[in-house]
Amino acid sequence: MVNPRGILLNVESGPNDIRYRIKRVNRIIYVPVLNPDIIPEDRRTYGPSAIDELSKLEEWNDDSWNTLQVDQDENGVKCYKDVAHPHSVPVHYLLRRSIYDISTLRVIPGSSLVPKLLGYVSESSSAARIIGFLVEKVNGRHADLEDLEVSEAALDRLHISLVHGDLCKYNIIITDKGPKFIDLEDSVLVGADSWSDELRQKEKQGLATKLSNTSGLGRPWECQTG
């Protein structure tokens, strides 16, 4: 049974403010507390205790707001509805993809050099609060030295548009449809210039060494055993 008062998802407690992210039944709410002294120190970060304190606010049971900014002055505690907005990816940065409510995620297959971008993950059915992105599930195995030829060919195709930037054997998944590259956080867009050619050559020349590396460098955390 869902706690009607809410479930604390995360909290950032600092010397100047406390910021709560809370699930209330079927929606996510945000409560920035601009004066930490409003919440007793020993009750700020433990979910039930923090929500118990917040539920004492007169506005707490009003469902008309998504953010409730809480402050204090000489006249007491003050609450301001929806004057603060949670951080989100600006809409103009988003590609033309669907918005998926985090509570209704599904995985859809696809195929390309990288996992297919299916859409963005939001805390609602709109772009009001984008918290991540959704890509296809990739089934396969990590590349090894025996996959050098097919990996080089795939890397050449990838290099038409970008350099991976953090290539290792664990960032190449060998699937039944060929290699796929993952973990592109450090990738760099490249063009037809000497600087881009240098990046391409350096990455390709190091591929064999990366595939033969047995140190475990770059291995996903869940694969580290023994």
From TrEMBL:
UniProt-listed Enzyme Commission number(s): 2.7.11.1
InterPro entries: Kinase-like_dom_sf, RIO_dom
A GO MF term: protein serine/threonine kinase activity
Domain RIO-type: 159-197
Catalysed transformations (reactions): L-seryl-[protein] + ATP = O-phospho-L-seryl-[protein] + ADP + H(+); L-threonyl-[protein] + ATP = O-phospho-L-threonyl-[protein] + ADP + H(+)
Pfam annotation, one family: RIO1
Superkingdom of origin organism: Eukaryota
SUPFAM superfamilies, per database record: Protein kinase-like (PK-like) (SSF56112)
Keyword ATP-binding found: yes
Keywords: ATP-binding, Kinase, Nucleotide-binding, Serine/threonine-protein kinase, Transferase
Protein name in UniProt: non-specific serine/threonine protein kinase
Organism of origin: Clonostachys solani
